Amino acid sequence: MIKKYRKKVPIQAEQFDGSTEMINRYNIRTNTVYKLDPEDESFNETVPYQIETLEGWIELRLNYWIAEGVSGEHWAIADDIFKKTYVEVEK
């Protein structure tokens, strides 16, 4: 049977702006090249930003949100998904 669930604890998050400060704070990789075809350089793809998560390195884009979990782990959330999923907690 499918049941509904909600998160128990609030998260901390900030919107990624590409600044050097954020790149350094979150240890973000820049300009990573994926070799889609090792024999043909024209098939390579450059990803501007990546952030390390519990599942490994994932793509991070400008205006994505960087969320922090209860154990200090980070993950990226697309802006439209973030706005549908989270609301700011009043102080």
Q: What's the gyration radius in Å?
A: 16 Å
Query: Mind describing the biggest β-sheet?
Result: 3 strands, antiparallel
Give the helix level as a range of percent: 10-25%
Secondary-structure-based class equals alpha+beta
* Strand tally: 6
Strand order of the largest sheet: 1-5-6
Question: Which features characterize this protein?
Answer:
single chain; 91 residues; alpha+beta; three-stranded antiparallel β-sheet; 2 helices; 6 strands; globular
Please tell me about this protein's structure.
It contains 2 helices and 6 strands, in the order βαβββββα. The chain is of the alpha+beta class and 91 residues long. The strands form 2 sheets. The chain has a 3-stranded antiparallel sheet. A 3-stranded antiparallel sheet has the order 2-3-4, with no helix packed on it. Strand 5 and strand 6 form a beta hairpin. The protein is globular, with a radius of gyration of 16 Å.
